[in-house]
Design a protein that fits this description.
Blueprint: H1 5-14, E1 24-26, H2 37-54, E2 62-65, H3 67-75, H4 82-99, E3 112-118, E4 128-132, H5 138-146, H6 149-166, H7 172-185, H8 196-214, H9 222-235, H10 240-249, E5 257-263, E6 274-279, E7 291-296, H11 300-305, E8 311-312, H12 316-319, H13 321-338, E9 342-349, E10 352-360, H14 365-377, H15 383-389, H16 396-399, E11 402-403, E12 411-414, E13 416-419, E14 422-428, H17 431-438, E15 443-447, H18 455-460, E16 463-466, H19 474-482, E17 485-488, E18 493-497, E19 502-505, E20 508-511, E21 515-519, E22 524-527, E23 532-533, H20 540-552, E24 556-560, H21 564-572, E25 578-582, H22 593-601, H23 605-629, E26 634-638, H24 651-664, H25 669-684, H26 696-701, H27 703-722, E27 728-733, H28 739-760, E28 767-772, H29 775-779, H30 781-784, E29 790-793, H31 795-803, H32 811-819, H33 833-850, E30 855-858, H34 866-874, E31 879-882, H35 887-903
Parallel strand pairs: 14-15, 15-16, 16-17, 24-25, 24-31, 25-26, 26-27, 27-28, 28-29, 29-30, 30-31
Antiparallel strand pairs: 1-2, 2-5, 3-4, 3-5, 6-7, 6-9, 7-8, 9-10, 11-23, 12-22, 13-17, 14-21, 18-19, 19-20, 21-22
Helix pairs in contact: 5-6, 6-8, 7-8, 14-15, 14-20, 15-20, 20-35, 21-23, 22-23, 23-27, 24-25, 27-28, 34-35
């Protein structure tokens, strides 16, 4: 229908049409349309109230001041233009006409609530004021009209407290101090035990507090109260908790909040009145059950503030069966209308039900999946809509053990949630101790930061906690790859004393062997042995849901896995191959590091080959295990990438050891050995090792290393092929910047392949490609594609080299960059589309111009980030690769990206 309110509001948003200047809407004027345009204008709460009003549900009348008004308020230096103030006064007049009451009137006072309401639900993050319109005169009218002095004075004291805290910014604790003093004075155990006389005393003390703190009396003009409350709700958009919530949930700061002004109904009028909140389904488990709590003779804040213990909502059926049945019928109707779980608020005033809010309910990952599947089965939604209902990140809760929240949790610190899940174990402070103590039970490896040498300890530990580091630090990257719960950058750690074996955190000093627990999904560090719950991701509704996602996605999903155990996890979670096997991690194993170090110490190629020959069967065994697990699926193996010095002891540690040996045993053979190692470390020392002798450069300078690794790969491939299994190896040359570098390394790979195939009288199809990690490689991708059969973008290093940020050091300033709007996200966590993404697009297009069938994917940490996965789909990549435990997340993100092609909408907030 032309000229509908929807069209009018849309035109007002775009600045066109006769409604362009409309900022205030009575509840009956709007509706929560499917395109979300009314939510943009009215906020979710306002749109829901409008929709319920239009449906004829019992909603107290009111009006919504739009989110555009909020934005205008801030643009206009915390003031509204006179024309908008007039529009709000007109809305108040209409409300007065509808209710037959007047704001500030002594005879028929209108009392209202003033509540926030943004487009996206932000429960508890912004502010609310109830009972606005009460003053020293109107409270007397309320006493006379209700013949209930206690109720009237209770409403007034609540209003002064809320207004004083939210609007006048007086700490809530100051009001609580007064109230608790009154309870003590009048020997009241519960709030409801205070009679009218006691509450009058509280009101007097509250007003004295306001006068003392503000040097002005409590405002008595109801219209002034409304203006002040409205502005305070606008300002609450920027309060610290709201800002933090937006940051956590990727909600744009520019949206602003609506303000809902609604006629008060009272749940605290006596034992036939009450208030409650609920959900149409269980938001924790997803079960189809009526879920919620209520209190009789209470206002809404009492239920959520913990002032009194609420009662399960099913008990309402016993106390007021007619109201309960009406509530069930109403909320069921709302769920069918919105086709989603509803989070609702209600008040019962003297036996009559009023609906105060409905919105799509927040839910856990487990509940999100179950509700989506159940609603398809019930015919409420289609499969594609179900896929879009679950945030990919929510699947974390299915894939890792999680803390059992139904217990007392003693949080002693918080860091960055680097790798999800829960871990419980005894504290150890070194990798070696993790290995030895881990044999006797689970351990948590606590380090200032981890290094590659710690790999064995990290593998043995149940979880990892570091004082320093960011989301792409060593601990974070390796922890995610292993599926280890990991918390990094915990600033609450005041000291780690490895000598005394103590950890100072959260005002406590813990020692080695003490139990701690980690929550890798939130970054919490908890004291003691906390119970965990194991998920079951391979059956029931989860498997059904993921099968729907797989039906619609185009993008392949592989996993980063270095050992057979990780490969098994990857397959269990639906990986379609291995997108990155980092061979350097294999050399850190206890039985190999000595041979690796001896190879590095060797002065001649002959000696290096001798030690490489000892490593060959070990590498071959690793690859045999991987190929067996991944039979029939591609396995990308990256040749040795890090600089050689990483396999040797640290320079500073060697110097200390040598100094001690010189003092104690100056003639010992061990001293000469340490001095030789130090000399080699000094030779290999580089000022910027990340851009030094590593990657393909290492294979070009020492081709025997690449040769040994290629031989191990092809010998393993031939052996597994002989077992009747299909093997698809893809050999990746790292850090290539030119066609010539790749050509030299490819010649070695092809030569070794030919030698092995002739010797084994077998042949295995394979590909040779490269990891694009340098901007130059992206720009000359057309030349490189003459040699490369596949590209894999190493987005960790490509981000580093594009920005010129050290991923190990950038944590010192990245948070400030995001806060100041220089960057929208941490580019190591979410792909930088404008810069790094542009290079990916350029390289893909140029590479495919040279080689149309070029296989292209990414294997950095971005492969498990939903926004980054969406980008990879949009630019036509073939696959993404991520840690095994993030494979289902990538599968769902890829499905949502595919669906966004047809709907024109993104599956997530960017």
């Amino acid at each position: 229908m032309a000229g509908t309110l929807i069209e009018q509001v849309v035109s007002s948003i775009t600045g066109q049409g006769k409604m362009a200047d409309k900022y205030v809407y009575s509840f009956g004027e709007g509706k929560a349309d499917g395109n979300g345009q009314m939510k943009d204008e009215l906020g979710g709460k306002g749109a829901g109230l409008a929709e319920m009003t239009n449906a004829g549900l019992p909603v107290p009348p009111g009006f919504t001041i739009s989110t555009r008004a909020c934005r205008l308020y801030f643009e206009n230096k915390n003031e509204l233009p006179a024309k908008l103030e007039t529009e709000i006064r007109q809305a108040v007049s209409r409300l007065e006409e509808v209710t037959g009451q007047q704001l500030g009137s002594r005879e028929k006072p209108l009392l209202v609530s003033v509540r926030s309401g943004a487009k996206f639900s932000m429960p508890g993050m912004m502010d609310t004021i109830l009972n606005l319109g009460l003053n020293d005169e109107t409270v007397k009218t309320l006493v006379a009209k209700t013949n209930n002095p206690r109720f009237a004075f209770d409403c007034y004291r609540r209003f002064i407290q809320m207004f004083g805290n939210v609007v006048l910014e007086i700490p809530k604790a100051d009001f609580d101090h007064v109230f608790e003093g009154a309870k003590k004075k009048y020997k009241a155990k519960l709030d409801t035990d205070l009679d009218a006389k006691a509450l009058q005393s509280v009101i007097d003390d509250y007003k004295k507090l306001v006068k003392k703190k503000t040097r002005s009396p409590f405002p008595q003009d109801a219209h002034e109260q409304l203006v002040m409350a409205r502005n305070a709700v606008f300002r609450s958009w920027y309060n610290p908790r709201a800002a933090h919530y937006r940051k956590m949930n990727n909600i744009s700061e520019s949206l602003g909040t609506g303000v809902n002004v609604q006629t008060m109904v009272f749940g605290n009028l006596g034992e036939t009145s009450g208030t409650g909140v609920g959900f149409t389904r269980n938001p924790s488990t997803g079960e189809k059950e009526f879920y919620g709590e209520f209190l009789m003779n209470a206002q809404g804040e009492d239920v959520v503030a913990g002032i009194r213990t609420p009662v399960p909502i099913k008990e309402l059926g016993k106390e007021m069966p007619a109201v309960y049945n009406q509530l069930r019928e109403t909320t069921t109707r709302l769920e069918k209308h919105y086709r989603d779980i509803q989070d609702f608020e209600f008040t019962i005033q003297e036996g009559k039900l009023y609906m105060l809010q409905t919105r799509n309910g927040k839910r856990t990952g487990k509940a999100a999946v179950k509700i989506a599947v159940d609603m398809v089965d019930e015919g409420l939604i289609k499969k594609n809509e179900a896929i879009l209902r679950v945030e990919p990140a929510q699947l974390d809760q299915w894939l890792h053990p999680v803390l059992d929240e139904k217990q007392d949790l003693k949080v002693i610190g918080k860091g960055l949630p680097a790798s999800p899940g829960a871990a419980v174990g005894r504290i150890v402070f070194s990798a070696d101790e993790a290995v030895s103590q881990g044999k006797n039970g689970p351990v948590i490896l606590v380090r200032a930061e981890t290094v590659p040498d710690d790999i064995h300890g990290m593998e043995a530990a149940a979880g990892i906690l570091t004082a320093r580091g960011g989301m792409t630090s060593h601990a974070a990257v390796v922890g995610r790859g292993m599926g280890k719960c990991c918390v990094v950058g915990c600033n609450d750690i005041k000291a780690i004393d490895e000598h005394k074996k103590t950890l100072a955190i959260g005002g406590k000093t813990l020692k080695e062997g003490d139990w701690i627990s980690l929550d890798g999904s939130t970054g919490r560090v908890l004291e003691g042995k906390v119970r965990t719950v194991d998920p079951d991701p391979n059956s029931g509704v989860f498997a059904k849901f993921m099968s729907w996602a797989d039906e619609v996605r185009r993008l392949g999903v592989r996993a980063n896995a270095d050992i057979p155990r990780d490969a098994e996890v990857a397959r269990r979670y639906g990986a379609q191959g291995i997108g990155l096997c980092r061979t350097e991690h294999m050399f850190f194993a206890e039985d190999r590091i000595a041979h690796m170090q001896a190879m590095i110490m060797a002065e001649t190629e002959k000696d290096r080959r001798k030690h490489l020959a000892k490593l060959l069967p070990m590498q071959r065994k690793d690859f045999i295990g991987l190929f067996r697990v991944m039979q029939g699926l591609p396995v990308i193996i990256r040749l040795l990438d890090p600089p050689l010095h990483e396999f040797l002891p640290k320079r500073e540690e060697l110097m200390v050891e040598i100094a001690l040996l010189k003092a104690k045993s100056p003639r010992s053979s061990k001293l000469k050995e340490k001095e030789a190692v130090l000399a080699r470390v000094e030779q290999l020392h580089e000022l910027n090792p990340m851009l030094g002798l590593r990657g393909c450069r290492l294979g070009i300078v020492h081709p025997e290393i690449s040769e040994m690794q290629a031989r191990a790969i092809f010998e393993a491939a031939c052996k597994v092929t002989a077992e009747g299994k299909k093997v698809i190896p893809e050999i990746m040359i790292p850090l290539v910047g030119s066609r010539q570098e790749l050509a030299l390394q490819k010649q070695i790979v092809d030569r070794v392949a030919k030698e092995v195939f002739e010797k084994e009288k077998a042949k295995v199809e394979y590909m040779v490609g490269t990891m694009i990690e340098l901007p130059r490689a992206a720009l000359v991708a057309d030349e490189i594609a003459n040699e490369a059969e596949f590209f894999s973008f190493g987005t960790n290093d490509l981000t580093q080299t594009t920005f010129g940020f050290s991923r190990d050091d950038s944590g010192k300033f990245l948070e400030s960059y995001v806060k100041q709007g220089i960057l929208q996200h941490d580019p190591f966590a979410t792909l930088d589309r404008a810069g790094v993404g542009a290079l990916i697009k350029i390289a893909s297009e140029r590479g495919r111009r040279t080689r149309p069938n070029l296989e292209v994917g990414i294997c950095g940490e971005h492969g498990g980030d939903p926004s980054s996965v969406e980008f990879c789909h949009q630019v036509g990549l073939d696959y993404v690769s991520c840690s095994p435990y993030r494979v289902p997340i990538a599968r769902l993100a890829a499905a949502q990206a595919a669906l966004s092609d047809s709907t024109g909408e993104s599956g997530r907030t960017l």
